[in-house]
Amino acid sequence: ISRNADRIQRIIQRVRNFVKSRQAVAQTSAVDLNQAVRDGLEMIEHQLMSHGIELILQLDPNIPAVSGDETQIEEVVINLVTNARQTLDLTEREDKKIVIETRSSEQGVCLIISDTGTGFSADALVNLFRPFFTTKAEGLGLGLSIVHSIVTGFSGKIELLPPANGFSTVLVVTLRVWSEEDEAGREGTFPA
Question: Taking the chain, what is the end-to-end CA distance rounded to the nearest angstrom?
């Protein structure tokens, strides 16, 4: 048990170092969130269709650019949609849907991913972004942890809203709007 606990601790530390190094290397730039959503979906859209899942896009064409890294934001989309697909695979519902929405808010620009899957248990809610916590038989428990690290690395936030309108899971990622200060190359922490 002690050897395995040490091994797990080393794995967690390597993953944390990997995520931190990726955040340090990534150059923050103005990112078209709608395009990042489309590009991320190109990689996994066929999986959704083959699993009988209806994908609905509600992308606001008037949202401003966000501050981030396009590749990492695509990774956020891929991880969140893959999680939604996996929970939809566990449900017997016939109306398997994932809705992806973008819109402006007072806090920034929101990416909202809703699904009609199984939702989260009370235990899962407490451990939602903890590395290696998973409710899936074959999951590693890294997807939401990586998403959380990427989003917070760009001074954004991610939150789970209560189920609503027939959707069991509603995740909202809020990212900062790209500004002139970003363009000027200002470094350091940004207001949340």
Answer: 41
Give dist(CA 119, CA 141) in Å, integer.
16
**What does the alpha-carbon distance between residue 104 and residue 176 come to, in Å, rounded to a whole number?**
10
Q: What average pLDDT does the chain have?
A: 81
> Residue 24: CA atoms inside 13 Å, Cβ hemisphere, count?
6
pLDDT of amino acid 186 = 47
CA distance 50 to 79: 18
Q: What is the 3-state secondary structure (H, E, C) of the chain?
A: CHHHHHHHHHHHHHHHHHHHHHHHHCCCEEECHHHHHHHHHHHHHHHHHHCCCEEEEEECCCCCCEEECHHHHHHHHHHHHHHHHHHHHCCCCCCCEEEEEEEEECCEEEEEEEECCCCCCHHHHHCCCCCCCCCCCCCCCCHHHHHHHHHHHCCCEEEEECCECCECEEEEEEECECCHHHHCCCCCCCCC
pLDDT at 49 over 60: yes
Is residue 160 within 8 A of residue 170, CB to CB? The reply is: yes
